[in-house]
Amino acid sequence: MKFFNFHLMPYRHADLEAIQKNGSAWVTFSNSHYDPKLGAELYHEYLDQMEFADRLGFDGVCLNEHHQTAYGMMPIPGVLAGALARSVKRAQIAVLGRALPLLNNPLMVAEEFAILDNLTRGRFIAGFVRGIGAEYHAMGINPAESQARFLEAHDLIVRGWTEPGPFSYTGKYYQFQYVNPWPRPYQAPHPPIWVPSQGSSSTIRWAAERRYTYCQTLSPILTVKKFFDMYREEARKAGYEASQDQLAWSNCIYVAETDARAMAEAKPHLEALMTRLLKMPMEMLLPPGYTNIEAMKRIKSTRAVGSKPQSAEDLVKSGLVIIGSPATVREKLAEYQELAGFGTTLTKTQFGTMPDDMVRANMQAIAEEVIPHFKDAA
After folding, report:
1. Rounded distance, CA 357 to CA 309, Å?
2. N or C end of the chain, less CB within 10 A?
3. Residue 320 near residue 253, CB atoms below 8 Å
4. What is the mean pLDDT of residues 360-366?
5. Counting beta carbons within 10 angstroms of the beta carbon of residue 378, is it exposed (0 to 12), middle (13 to 18) or buried (19 or more)?
6. Are 218 and 305 a contacting pair, CB within 8 Å?
7. Contact 94, 127 (CB under 8 A)
8. Within its chain, how far is the Cα of 76 from the centroid?
9. Predicted local confidence at residue 376, as pLDDT
10. Cα three-residue angle 307-309-314, rounded to 5 degrees
11. d(Cα 105, Cα 173) in Å, to the nearest integer?
């Protein structure tokens, strides 16, 4: 199993009660609550943590993109990936991912990702997402166009990476007289493409057909299994057997000396993430036109975070997070891997309001007590 350190970079100094009164940390939560001095320190703290992950032996570090939210301070993840491209010496760097439908010029992502691929000498992973519903409120994009804009932007980026330019392009949403992006990617024909999703059947089918790595967002383990089984079935329809390397699970892990101590330490920070920073009304998560009725019903019925307050104990019981002693974490992670068949864990070692000293102790415990067990097994 590969271990990636996935960071959300939350504004962990946020006033949780103010978020509760506002109803969400997204879009409508005033940026007057952001203190630039504290925010600047957090950026450096979080980048230091990702560099520490590299030194500890994690296989990769992950960033993502969200807009107008205290949940994650990465509206332009390429800026932070660029800061890590030379300081992270060994691990892969993944942006999971850029929200393609929000862009008026997808070729800028082709250029941005190609630069990162060159800076890392081929250690870059390109993640493409549609973006959650709140992004469409934040960016003023029609959510009903989300799927079509995503597909067209993806096809244009891949053509720009693989087809010698200049050539012209005329699509429904994007038109260019000249498509000739410089630089070209370091990896041939292009960086590996990973596709995170909440479990859209059309996205899973599309990713499987192209043999892209599918990343299931934070979900209970039985939900993860269901969507990974769906990917494997779509791969068979496409004429091949999917491997574990094509499946990645996003989770939270916290390790301490005992199960009781781990729960006591992680509980307030995990619940701050789940009941405050991730919380949003359904109309913000799934605006009209963003998804079809069948998918909306499925997501609403299986969604584990943000819809109502949940205790850390409930989240552990559902298999959405793993908290415990080294032995407990090893046992649970092995059980979940056997059940769902994933080859990569995208682990949030920092979540919610967790301070730096706890994060580093958690990362070190995972690196010393958990990762070697799975490397040796492999």
Report:
1. 27
2. C
3. no
4. 98
5. exposed
6. yes
7. yes
8. 14
9. 76
10. 105
11. 10
The answer for residues whose C-beta is within 8 angstroms of residue 321's C-beta and 6 or more apart is 251, 252, 253, 254, 270, 312, 315
> In this predicted model, what pLDDT tens digit does every residue of 21-37 receive, in sequence order?
999 999 999 999 999 99
d(CA 134, CA 66): 9
Which residue has better confidence, 43 or 281? 43
Alpha carbons 135 and 121: distance in angstroms, whole number: 32
Q: Are 231 and 247 in contact (CB under 8 A)?
A: yes
Q: Are 340 and 199 contacting, i.e. CB atoms less than 8 angstroms apart?
A: no
Could you give the CA distance from residue 319 to residue 333 in angstroms, rounded to a whole number? 9
- Please enumerate in sequence order all residues whose Cβ is within 8 A of that of 328, keeping only pairs 6 or more positions apart, or say none: 259, 262, 322
Spatial distance between the Cα atoms of 53 and 222, rounded to a whole number of angstroms: 28
Dump pLDDT digits (tens) for 90-113.
Answer: 999 999 999 999 999 999 999 999
> In this predicted structure, what is the pLDDT of residue 305?
42
pTM value is 0.95
Does residue 216 have a pLDDT over 50? yes
